[in-house]
Amino acid sequence: MSFLIVLLCMGVLILLLTWGKMNAFIAFLIVSVLAGVLLGIPADKIPGSLQKGIGDTIGGLLSIIALGAMLGKLVAESGAARQIANTLMQLFGERYMQWALLIAGFIIGIPLFYGVGFVLMVPLIFSVVYQYKLPAVYIGLPTLAALSVTHGFLPPHPSPTALVAQFHADMGLTLLYGMVVAIPTLLLAGPFFARYLKNMPSEPSALFAQQTVSTAPLPGKGNSFVTALLPVFLLILTTLLTHFFTGDGNAHRWVLFAGDAQIVMLFAVLVATFSLGIFQQKPIKQLMNIYADAIKDVAMILLIIAGAGALKQVLADSGVSGEIAAAMQSWHIPVLVLGWLMAAIIRACVGSATIAGITAAGMIAPLMLREHTDPNLMVLAVGAGSLMFSHVNDAGFWMFKEYFNLSIKNTLLSWSVMETIVGTAGLLGVLALEALF
Question: For residue 7, what are the contacts with CB-CB under 8 A and spacing of at least 6?
Fold first, then answer.
């Protein structure tokens, strides 16, 4: 009976988000209260469950996601992202322009949120398409695949960061594993798949024929690359150092301190404030306005994650999470595959990768603990599932269709297939890592 109640609540959530067009945070709170009542939690205890779920989920994530948004916004506003792309295009030349944009998308996609990266890269893609008379989908899709991969697999993006917290994974190790999975996934969903789309008709808007060029000087090449990738370098470095400095000594404590994701992101933002801000003659007031705008960009993402945390806590307090975990054990499906499948189904229903990932995580976490599954791989498996089959209920689908001026059919054959390849190849990469380690 409890399992049916959970399915009913998931159905109500999907209807509120899709048919009802309701704000995701409000929808999560409504469903959390409904689930609490139906699952027999005393009425006076339900508000406490909501508060605990929101606090436990968002407490460790707020600073990481907010600081990540600030860094990404400054990388975009300062021109560092454009400098990275221009440098790579000069380095690779016309013949390998697709690869230049692909690598630019991957590097820029690490600090930038998906929507910002998409809007930033599309004019650059189209300026190359018009200048060199290249097929738009063939050139552009790998770049956008790179943004999708970083969005689903790599911290400090909101979904993988939230999953790291829910599964109690290690941020640095997850990032390392994520890089290992992301690169072959990107090659398969990007350049390899795009070879079959060379003849797909696409007439991008003339609005993007000429890339808008700012008169302000761009930051230096080294400065742009190092600042944008600094969180990645620091997380990987401190993760590796933990294997050299062990025990209870001061060195080990300082490595753990320096490797904490909040400290890493704070340090990266402070460095960027000087390297891309003050040293580029930007007044401190302008920089603080950029950071304030960045918080507005991620406010709703933070609320969605908080709402999902409330639902997770209600399921845990009612005891149904344990029941679901026990029931799933009889399904004889590997836990990593099960987590991926749950996220994929929710993604197909609601369209949001972030909602799909964190909703699936709340249901699969108890089973993951029982089966002693590697939490870092679980983050990547659920992340891969949350990227599966993007279609008409996903904003990214419509952005790609409208920007590239494609028919619905060709958008499904290009964008939707690309996202499905990313999700499937990501799962295969996770299973390969599990077999190796």
Answer: none
394/413 Cα distance (integer angstroms): 15
The structure tokens 């209260």 sit at 33
Integer Cα distance of 342 and 356 in angstroms: 8
Which residues, 6 or more positions from 303, have their beta carbon under 8 angstroms from its beta carbon? 24, 25
Give the other-Cβ count within 10 Å of 328's Cβ: 20
Q: In angstroms, what CA-CA distances link 52 with 10, 47, 368?
A: 21, 9, 21
Both structure tokens of 289 = 């306005």
Tell me the domain boundaries of the chain.
2-436
pTM, whole model, 2 decimals? 0.81
Q: Which two tokens stand for residue 80?
A: 């560092």
Distance of CA 109 to the CA centre of its chain: 9
Residue bearing the bigger pLDDT, 297 or 182? 182
Residues 21-33: pLDDT tens digits? 888 899 989 999 9
Residues sharing a CB contact under 8 Å with residue 173, sequence separation 6 or more, in sequence order: 239, 376
How far apart (Å, rounded) are the C-alpha atoms in residues 59 and 54? 8
Q: How far apart are CA 36 and CA 310, in angstroms?
A: 10
